[in-house]
Write a sequence for this structure.
């Protein structure tokens, strides 16, 4: 009898332990599922910053000074001392030309040595210092007097040309500071150095120049130029990534974080903005409050979230 009671007690104890284990397992699974249901997001805080808005325009590089090397006589190219992309200096002998008359004197000079000096080919010299951007002849070619043999580009004459709509005339003028961004992402700051006194009749745009004598850039390179034209100090602002809008870009909102676990939709009115931050002119936002910067797309109001650390 005693043995039977002990067995019953063991069975009852085992059942209690199994029930407790199952309950704990269900609780842990429920907690894990609850955490898994939360949307993972990144967050930042509302700040006060000096915000600058930029006018962004496109520009293209151009060499203003290009010199042509021309043939100084009619004849054959007997020697060509440079090739395309070579550097050449003012006064360098570019090539030699022998005329038909000089070629005929070769035979005559055998009879009269005093005529030999007149049979020497004529030298063609460079009239500029720079890089040979084009060479249009080869050794042995026949050329006429005045023909263009090559073009010398002067790297120190590099400029960026910007076509500025006349409506932006107050913000772009000679001496105005700007930031230039190259296609490879490199940026540098400089100032506008000149402008043409005419406006294109079709586009109503005026051409401005930025001289870059110390830059080594190719011609016809497209660049981006930014001019600061609006600024707000101590502006209540949020990261641009936090701002959301409708398809027509008429309504704007951000998702504010409550108790580190709940996302609340807050309509806002925006002001100045640049490529990283945006001014909040009105809305239920306070300095230091958390707002979602990534992961909020498509979130509805009062969604449970999990902030990534």
């Amino acid at each position: 009898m005693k043995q039977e009671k002990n067995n019953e007690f063991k069975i009852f104890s085992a059942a209690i332990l199994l029930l407790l284990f199952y309950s704990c397992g269900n609780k842990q699974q429920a907690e894990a599922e609850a955490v898994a249901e939360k949307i993972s997001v990144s967050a930042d805080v509302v700040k006060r910053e000096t915000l600058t808005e930029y006018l962004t325009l496109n520009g293209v590089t151009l060499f203003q000074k290009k010199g042509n090397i021309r043939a100084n006589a009619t004849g054959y190219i007997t020697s060509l001392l440079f090739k395309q992309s070579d550097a050449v200096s003012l006064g360098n002998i570019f090539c030699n030309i022998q005329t038909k008359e000089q070629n005929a004197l070769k035979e005559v000079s055998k009879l009269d040595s005093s005529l030999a000096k007149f049979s020497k080919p004529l030298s063609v010299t460079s009239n500029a210092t720079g890089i040979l951007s084009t060479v249009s002849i080869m050794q042995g070619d026949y050329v006429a007097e005045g023909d263009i043999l090559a073009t010398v580009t002067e790297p120190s004459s590099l400029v960026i040309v910007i076509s500025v709509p006349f409506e932006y005339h107050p913000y772009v003028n000679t001496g105005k500071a700007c930031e230039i961004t190259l296609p490879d992402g490199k940026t540098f700051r400089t100032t506008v150095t000149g402008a043409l006194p005419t406006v294109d009749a079709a586009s109503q745009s005026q051409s401005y120049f930025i001289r870059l004598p110390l830059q080594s850039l190719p011609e016809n390179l497209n660049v981006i130029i930014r001019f600061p034209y609006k600024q707000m100090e101590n502006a209540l602002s949020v990261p641009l990534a936090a701002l959301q809008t409708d398809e027509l870009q008429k309504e704007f909102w951000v998702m504010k974080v409550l108790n580190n676990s709940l996302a609340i939709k807050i309509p806002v009115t925006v002001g100045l903005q640049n490529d990283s931050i945006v001014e909040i002119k009105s809305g239920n936002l306070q300095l230091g409050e958390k707002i979602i910067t990534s992961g909020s797309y498509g979130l509805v109001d009062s969604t449970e979230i999990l902030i990534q650390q």
Observations:
- The CA atoms of residues 53 and 230 lie 5 Å apart.
- The chain has a mean pLDDT of 85.
- The first helix runs from residue 2 to 37.
